[in-house]
Write a structure and sequence with these properties.
Its main location: membrane. By secondary structure, the protein is mainly alpha-helical. It is built from 17 helices and 2 strands.
Length: 415
């Protein structure tokens, strides 16, 4: 790593600037569209003719995998573009693609149409968060970065609650139309948003930008990158398996009333609002990203154990309270992306900040078949317990061995 050669310091901005507002609203729409399928999974599949319980589970996992596969592809694509062409081009290009894909999702008539449009939507959804966090991190003073990304996350994750309300009130097709329309409306807010000064200065230099494979040509850099990826896996274990399959887990636990995935997602993401606020604030108070992440990972482990083994015979209300607190415990998502952005130089920052969360999200593609394979010998709860334990232990190790990045000067490049 070496300092960027700059003629003047990059300009910074305030916590409620147009950049922070647009990034926060962009993440709001991103989360709305990302989580919407988990909310309308059963309703939409039933209307498309998939009614058998096992088929609904299997087809739902297939569609989730298609969406997450798109996010893996999009993560690399948008990350490279973010470092080569600029953060703003990714921020608005990704919004346009996932908005159009979600409008088209409202017209699907077959599972295959549904699957391919979830793939395209996933590609679009992959770019927004990384570009937004990178832009906010590079334009805010280093003392305020944690608060800026906290605002982005806190506003953003509340999009899941709107997705539940719209899906419940207006049906799954209209919910997709609303999500697409919100994204297109957001594009009008690009007026007044400027490109990162750090990126503009790096663009004038001779340094290579956006080389994804450069992350693997240096052992220390590759280790930092892999550790960043591993930190985010527990959140997607919780959301992609424990919450998305809430009806199946509720039945296994003998919950005394019906449990829906939509309400599970609603309460989990309601908890995430508080969790993201708390984790961002805690990292500022402790002046340490790593210690805040460690505390939240321990909290998450305790709540996964409660969810799996302490709710037998509970009422639906108690179950949803557990989903809410579980959501708080995984509210370190934006903090995780902030850490990833802070670990790398300006010429690779967007590549890392965009690929890291999407590879973490894409871990569902690996977690789901492992979950299904272990489900036979260990059962539903045992399989989830093993995967949860492994993902949390590995994430804790990754955080504990990663360099602290709080207050780090980001005006540098990777050699």
């Amino acid at each position: 790593m070496k300092p960027a050669t700059t003629a003047s310091p990059p300009r910074s901005t305030g916590l409620l600037s147009a950049i922070v507002v647009v990034a926060a609203l962009g993440y709001f729409v991103d989360i709305y569209d990302l989580i919407l399928f988990s909310i309308v999974r059963v309703q939409s599949l039933n209307e498309l003719g998939i009614t058998a319980k096992e088929a609904v589970t299997n087809q739902g996992l297939y569609l989730i995998n298609m969406q997450m596969g798109g996010m893996l592809l999009g993560g690399v694509l948008w990350g490279i573009l973010g470092d080569k062409k600029g953060r703003l081009s990714v921020l608005f290009g990704s919004i346009l693609i996932y908005s159009l894909a979600n409008i088209a999702n409202g017209f699907v008539q077959t599972i295959e149409q549904y699957a391919w449009l979830r793939l395209i939507a996933g590609i679009g959804l992959a770019g927004e968060l990384g570009a937004g966090i990178t832009l906010v991190s590079e334009t805010l003073p280093k003392e305020k970065r944690g608060y800026g990304t906290m605002i982005v996350a806190t506003v953003g994750v509340s999009g899941a609650m709107l997705a539940y309300w719209v899906g419940d009130r207006f049906g799954w097709r209209n919910a997709y139309f609303v999500g697409g329309g919100l994204g297109l409306a957001l594009l009008a807010l690009r007026v007044g948003v400027y490109e990162s000064g750090m990126f503009e200065q790096t663009k004038k230099s001779e340094v290579e930008r956006g080389n994804f494979f450069a992350l693997f040509t240096n052992r220390a850099r590759m280790a930092r990158y892999v550790k960043c990826l591993l930190i985010g896996v527990p959140l997607w274990f919780v959301v992609g398996i424990l919450i998305t399959l809430a009806p199946e887990f509720g039945a296994e636990m003998g919950i005394t009333g019906p449990v829906t995935a939509g309400l599970g997602v609603f309460w989990c993401y309601f908890g995430l609002v508080f969790g993201d606020f708390a984790s961002g604030t805690l990292s500022q108070v402790l002046r340490s990203r790593n210690r805040a992440l460690q505390l939240f990972l321990v909290f998450c482990g305790l709540m996964v154990a409660v969810y799996l083994f302490a709710l037998k015979g509970a009422t639906p209300t108690v179950f949803y309270v557990a989903c809410f607190v579980l959501g708080i415990s995984v509210g370190f998502w934006a903090l995780f992306v902030t850490v990833a952005a802070e670990q790398f130089g300006t010429n690779l920052r967007a590549t890392v900040a965009t690929t890291a969360p999407n590879f973490a999200r894409g871990s569902v593609i690996v977690l789901v078949p492992l979950f299904q394979a272990l489900r036979g010998p260990l059962g539903l709860l045992g399989s989830a317990a093993v995967l949860g334990l492994v993902s949390l232990v590995v994430a804790f190790w990754a955080v504990s061995t990663l360099p602290e990045s709080f207050g780090k000067d980001l005006d540098f490049v990777e050699e």
